[in-house]
Amino acid sequence: MTEYFFDEPRFHDPEIARQHLESVRWPKGPVCPHCGAMDRMSKLNGNAHRPGVYDCGHCRDQFTVTVGTVFEHSKVTLDKWLFAATLIASSKKGVSSKQVERMLGVTYKTAWFMTHRLREAMKPNGGGLLGGGSGTIEADETFIGRKPGMKKRRGYAHKEAIFSLVERKGNVRSFHVADVTANTLKPKLKENAAPNAHLMTDDAGQYRNMNKEFAGHDVVNHSAGEYVRGNVHTNTVEGFFSIFKRGMYGVYQHVSSHHLERYTTEFDFRYNHRETRVKVDGKWTKAGYNDAERTQALLKGISGKRLMYRASDR
After folding, report:
1. Where are the domains of the chain?
2. Which positions ≥6 away from 36 have C-beta within 8 Å?
């Protein structure tokens, strides 16, 4: 599954795990999370201090590498956090909290909290508009699960709706939406897609008149059995949905409406940090992120994010 082994010391020794996390978060040395200073830091090595405590010479506050992150105040040791982060970053279709429970030897409740905090770390910090520079964006929606209190019926009205935008050879951005009407989807398109982008959709009515909003809009006529017409298709976004649904049905099986967008964030993150192949000088070579680099990207995202849960949130 990965290019390295889970018997490495950082996955089993909390002190080595802390040192590894410091090297990822602070490649140029400690940074005070309270005032942002990067100099005049003193490491406290006294018997009364726990490992990894620093004192800031500017604001005089003390801190560790977990302060200001999703790991702050966690009783779970850092070696287990790194193990869980690696599992969720390198598992293409996700990893269930029950699997994390078994592999880490923690309770199910702890594993559930851990995986949700890691999904919080996967949230992008900005990212700009998709399709800038006349890029091509594919937009589509899919349906999953069942809305709370609704009975199964024909059609999709009883299901949860996911709307995704995929830039070809670029990133994906997904949203849990209340419905797939034009009033819901068009604002998402305008907020996340560049005006000079070229849009590709199917022939659903909610995408009509999109030429007014973007540089171009091509439609593939699914209702007439058409799926590809030259360069016009939505196969890229449908390929993303195929991975998403395999994970949601095969690994997670049931996700509440309350937390569904966290799972879309998880699948977006792995797609946006995927490993691909590119042709250079006539030869195919790997590009993008391998499992180790994807895990590092996740760990870099833990900063400035907190996620507090009560029992009623589950």
Report:
1. 9-125+301-313, 136-272
2. none
Whole-prediction pTM: 0.91
What is the DSSP track for 16-52?
A: HHHHHHHHHH-TTS---TTT---SSEEE--STTSPTT
If one looks up domain 136-272 in CATH, what number appears?
3.30.420.10
Give the span between the Cα atoms of 227 and 7, in whole angstroms: 46
- Which amino acid is residue 56, in one-letter code? C
Helix (H, G, I), strand (E, B) or coil at 111: helix
Contact (Cβ atoms closer than 8 angstroms) between residue 163 and residue 177: yes
pLDDT in tens, 256-288: 999 999 999 999 999 999 988 777 777 888 888
Report strand pairing: 160-167 vs 172-177: antiparallel
Contact 164, 174 (CB under 8 A): yes
Residues 236, 129: Cα–Cα separation, whole Å:
18
pLDDT tens-digit profile of 224-238?
999 999 999 999 999
